[in-house]
Amino acid sequence: MYKLLDGKSLANKLKEELKEEISHYLKKGLRKPSLAVILVGENPASKIYVRKKEESCEYVGINSISYHLPEDTTEKQLLKLINELNNRDDVDGILVQLPLPEHINTKKIINSINPQKDVDGFHPLNVGKLATGIDEGVIPCTPLGIWIMLKHYDIEIFKKNVVIVGTSNIVGKPMGLIFLKNEEATITYCHKNTKNLKEHTKSADILIVAVGKPKLITEDMVKEGVVVVDVGINRLQNGKIVGDVDFDNVKNKAYAITPVPGGVGPLTVVSLLINTVSVYREKNGLGRHPLTII
Ligand code: NAP
């Protein structure tokens, strides 16, 4: 019988812990941690994500400051707002919801965020810190959430073969860098030009899939006893949300597997809260949040 890596209940537990931690800071006379959330335009999925993030912030006691800007906001206006937020002492974290409308240069926007307030961990300085291990920066939320989950469920990592399918800057690439940090596991990255994907996925002790294609990973592509982390979120025509892994069949061979929904998603949101509390702690001389130490 496989073990279900239940992200939802773990995320709820972590939220309760964060709530208590923040109330402790307030009792000590510190102000609430605060996160500025910027949404440009009307992308329906982005609106849902932003609402979830804002609600979670409020729940644990993070002050979320919302900027819902119209679609025709110019790059210059957005840069001006970010500059103001970079300079505000009462703002700990800044999150710009992606994707941005096409007329705005995403790279330029990410680069403009103060790296110490970059709670998404997308700024090149934070990516560079993770890649080199020189100094510790902010770790992107989805891979951090996956790491926290694997540790929580006592998944053995030392000397394991980790195969990562999908190499985006927000999930796949930083995920591999986290595993590499302490040279514990051996990493294989697979992408759209990988020859014979199955050959690689079959070698995985831990398989992480972040592509955005339903049923990309089928039962014949994994070995017995694999740990499967499915990051994909795909909405089928009937409205059902599924991941990238054929869960119903792959689960029979897995030692442990994440469901979709209720796996990685809730941990991504909670990692944003953890990163926000972590930058707030650093600002107040309390050191990084322990959950961000990998
Ligand atoms: P992305 O930026 O589109 O990256 C997906 C990567 O997979 C791209 O590099 C893509 O290459 C590559 N790819 C395409 N076909 C492939 C194949 N057959 N084999 C291997 N790699 C292939 O997406 P993302 O932002 O990383 O997200 C991936 C999925 O995870 C999406 O479904 C997204 O909704 C979901 N997601 C979930 C969470 C969560 O919290 N659960 C967080 C973030 C993302 P090309 O771009 O060149 O085609």
Task: Give the topology.
Blueprint: E1 3-4, H1 7-27, E2 34-40, H2 44-60, E3 63-69, H3 75-87, E4 93-96, H4 106-112, H5 124-132, H6 141-152, E5 161-165, H7 172-181, E6 186-190, H8 197-201, E7 206-209, E8 226-230, E9 234-235, E10 241-242, H9 247-250, E11 254-257, H10 264-283
Parallel strand pairs: 1-11, 2-3, 2-4, 5-6, 5-7, 7-8, 8-11
Antiparallel strand pairs: 9-10
Account of the 3D structure:
The protein has 294 residues and is an alpha/beta fold. The protein has two domains: 87 residues, 3-Layer(aba) Sandwich (Rossmann fold), CATH 3.40.50; 125 residues, Rossmann fold, CATH 3.40.50. Helices cover 40% and strands 16% of the residues. The chain is built from ten helices and eleven strands. The strands form three sheets. Strands 1-11-8-7-5-6 form a six-stranded parallel beta sheet. Strands 3-2-4 form a three-stranded parallel beta sheet, with helices on both faces. The longest helix is centred in the first third of the chain and has 21 residues. The two termini are 30 Å apart. Bound molecules: NADP nicotinamide-adenine-dinucleotide phosphate. NADP nicotinamide-adenine-dinucleotide phosphate binds next to helix 10. The site of NADP nicotinamide-adenine-dinucleotide phosphate has 23 residues, from helix 10.
- Series of H and E elements: EHEHEHEHHHEHEHEEEEHEH
Q: Structural class of the helices, strands and pairings?
A: alpha/beta
Number of helices: 10
The CATH homologous superfamily of the largest domain is called: NAD(P)-binding Rossmann-like Domain
What ranges have pLDDT less than 50 throughout 5 or more consecutive residues? none
* Strand line-up in the sheet with most strands: 1-11-8-7-5-6
User: Which fold name fills CATH's third level, the topology of the largest domain?
Assistant: Rossmann fold
Bound molecules: NADP nicotinamide-adenine-dinucleotide phosphate
The helicity comes to 40-55%
How many domains? 2
Query: Could you say what the CATH architecture of the largest domain is?
Result: 3-Layer(aba) Sandwich
Query: What portion of residues belong to β-strands?
Result: 15-25%
Give the overall shape.
globular
CATH class of the largest domain: Alpha Beta
Main pleated sheet:
6 strands, parallel
Intertermini distance: 30 Å
